[in-house]
Specification:
Number of domains: 1
CATH superfamily: NADP-dependent oxidoreductase domain
Largest sheet: 8 strands, parallel
Number of helices: 13
CATH topology: TIM Barrel
Strand order of the largest sheet: 9-8-7-6-5-4-3-10
CATH architecture: Alpha-Beta Barrel
């Protein structure tokens, strides 16, 4: 396992991060506590040091499972969790108000059975609460030693930049990590966000790098998945990104074909090639793997050992490239030469 710098911080995180969203979920696709504990031990033994959870995963049970499993190895781990979504029925048990942030962080600390959180995310935009209030609360938590670094997830580009500007103006702690969906079949963050992360010093922690399981190679053209055992795509509402209606496109099947060809040539799995592509992308600090079982985890860990060639990267880039959505003039201004002799 290799390690990468988290944004502009001095913190080093393993290039693969263990995601825990379905730990203790209680559904057919859930990872039960005992299996989750074995997975955490295996991941740490493989050299991983970055574990990601959230206070809403499995209604808080994910944090409890993680906290119990890492109790004797806490100092080895960069532990991340999040705040934003509802944690009760009350009007103040949701959002990024100072009230809810303080309430939520102490609840997460109890469930995780730890004195501090290494990386604390704003899990989504809160249109009601001023960013100044949220950022000041995060800054106070860093000063108090309850959290050490802060991150952002699911904000639009202008929202991230506004937050960074506020932090700069007040000399408050600023984001060093950003968590967004990113894969060969979901590359939309490249339109605005990835370049901004590079310029502003935020390390990208991609999630959904297998497209809800679509890139694992188990799906076939014209064969719609039918049960929860088939993966996230089978149980995802139509309006969600991972829905079969969104995945079942000619572009995506061409991506699957390209991934499969490379996998066959390398004697690797589809998942390993898809994950390796994400690891090769600029600004990626730590890729979140969402394995459900030990065997899936073992397969995912193998992606860290795959160095894709320039030809392979070019092939995957070609079949997965996004359409140009912006007017030509934007690209012309961005890339035209600044050499006076060229005009």
């Amino acid at each position: 396992m290799k390690y990468r710098r988290l944004g502009n911080s001095g913190l080093l995180v393993s290039e693969l991060c263990l995601g825990t969203m379905i730990f203790g979920e209680g559904s057919e696709r859930s990872t039960p506590p005992d299996e989750a504990a074995r997975m955490i031990d295996r991941y740490l033994d493989a050299g991983g040091n970055h574990i990601d959870t959230a206070n809403v995963y499995a209604d808080g049970r994910s944090e409890e499972i993680v906290g119990k499993a890492i109790k004797n190895r806490r100092s080895q781990i960069v532990l991340a969790t999040k705040v934003r979504f509802p944690r009760g029925e009350g009007p103040n048990e949701v959002g990024l108000s100072r009230h809810h942030i303080m309430q939520a962080v102490h609840a997460s600390l109890r469930r995780l059975d730890t004195d501090y959180i290494d990386l604390y995310y704003m899990h989504g935009w809160d249109p009601m609460t001023p960013l100044e209030e949220s950022l000041r609360a995060f800054d106070d938590l860093v000063t108090a030693g309850k959290i050490r670094y802060i991150g952002v997830s699911n904000f639009k580009a202008w929202q991230v930049m506004k937050a960074l500007g506020i932090s700069e103006a007040h000399n408050w702690v600023r984001y060093v990590g950003a968590q967004y969906q990113y894969s060969l079949v979901t590359r939309d963050i490249e339109l605005e966000l990835t370049e901004m992360f590079q310029h502003e010093g935020l390390g990208l922690m991609p999630w959904g790098a297998l497209g809800g399981g679509f890139l694992s190679g188990k799906y076939k053209r014209g064969e719609r998945p039918g049960s929860a055992q088939d993966g996230r795509i089978a149980v995802t509402p139509v309006e969600w990104e991972e829905a079969w209606e969104r995945r079942n496109t000619e572009r995506n099947w061409n991506i699957i074909d390209a991934v499969g060809k490379i996998a066959e040539e390398r004697n690797a799995t589809y998942s390993q090639i898809a994950l390796a592509w994400v690891l090769h992308q600029p600004t990626v600090a730590s890729l979140i793997i969402g394995a459900r079982t030990i065997s899936q985890l073992e397969d995912n860990l193998g992606s860290a050992n795959i160095a894709l060639t320039d030809t392979e990267l070019e092939t995957l880039e070609r079949v997965s490239a996004l359409p140009e959505l912006y007017p030509y003039r934007i690209y012309a201004i961005q890339y035209q030469s600044r050499d006076p002799k060229a005009h």
